[in-house]
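Support reply, case 0932

Customer input (verbatim):
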Amino acid sequence: MTIIAGRSGTLRTLDGHSVSPTPVALFTWGFDYIWQMADMPPWQLACGTRDDWHRAHLALLERHRPDLLFYSGSGGTTPPRLVTNERESWLIEANGQRYRMDKTSLALANAQTGAKGCDPVGSMKTRADIDRMISAFTGWGETYLDGLHRLITETGDRALVLPHHSPAYICTCYAFGFERAMELMIEDPDLFIYACDRFQAGDRLRMQEWKAAGAEVCFIADGWASCDIISPAMIERFALPYQRSITKAAHEAGLRIILWNEGDILPILPEEAAIPVDAFVFEQPRKGASLTVEAVRAVFGPRRCLFGNLDSEALLARNDAAEIARAVAAQIAASGPNTPFVLSTGSPIPSFTAPEAVDAMIATARDR
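Our regenerated output:
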C-alpha cells in the first residue's frame, strides 16, 4: 500500500491501487454548499462572477482539504446586485436579467417568466423540432475553460479537479422533461434516440476541450438510469449505449472517467461493470434498495475503483460526529482490504449541511 494523498494519490486509486489514507471526494453540485465556504449568500454565488466561483472552489479546498474537487461553471464578469431581500426570496439582477431565488429550496428562476435552467427546451414533436431546439455543441466557451484551467493550475497536486457532464440519455430527458421523456421511450423511441444522438455528437469535443484545459479525469452523472424508474430492458436500450459512448469518448481524449448512477441499480450492476469506466459511484440506499458498498464491490471486483455512498442527507444533517465516524469506518471496511476506494457521499452535499459534519467525515478517513 502506498502512503500518498491529493491528486497523485487519487490518480493511483483510479488506476486500481490501494492508497492510504483513503482519498476523499467532496461531491458538490453547482453552487450548493460551496457558497458557505466562500462566506457569501447563495444568490451571490449562483449569479456570481468567475472570481466568485474561483474563490468558492479554493475556499472549499482550504477548509476541508479534499482529494477531489468538483468544478462547477465559472460565472460572468459583472457582479450580481441584490434588488430586494424579501421574506421568502431574493430578487437579483445579473447579466441584464432579473432572477428570483427561493430562500428555502434555493431554486433559481427567471423573475419574469419563472423559467429554470433545468426546464424542458420546448415542445419537440419531429426531428426538425429537435434540430432547431437542441443546438449542436460547439464548445464549452472561453470563460468556462479558462476557469477550469485556472482552478487546475492553482490547485496543483493538492486535489484532483473534476469537470462534469451527463450522458446523452440524461440530457435528452431534461430537454423533453421527465414525463414526456418517459412517454416517448414507449410511444416514439426512434424520436427519443434521435435526440440522444444529437447530444452524443458533442461528446468528443467536450472531452477534448477538457483535456486541453488540463483535466485528467471527468465525472459523468447519470440520474435516471434506475430500475425504480424504467425497466432493465429499457435501460439497456436507451441509457447504457450512451454511458458506453461517453466512456469511449473520454478515453479517446486521454481522460479517465468516473461514472455516477442513481437509484436502484442492483439488477443492472453486471451491465454497469462491463463498461470500462475507471471508477463507479452510486447513490445512498433509497426506496428499499439495499445498495451497499459490499454489493457493488462483489460485482465490480477487487481492482476497480469504487466511491462510497455515504448518506449526504440524513446522516450529515444529524451532524453527529461519532455516528459519522462509524459510517465512514464501515464503508472503508466494506470495500475490502487493499482495494481502490474513495470516500464520498452517494449524492451531492445539500446546501445547508453544517461544515462540521463534513469535517467529521474527512477526519475519520484521514485517521485510517
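We compared this against your earlier run and they match. Two observations from our side: DSSP finds 16 helices and 15 strands in the chain. The mean pLDDT is 95. Please reopen the case if you see a mismatch on your end.
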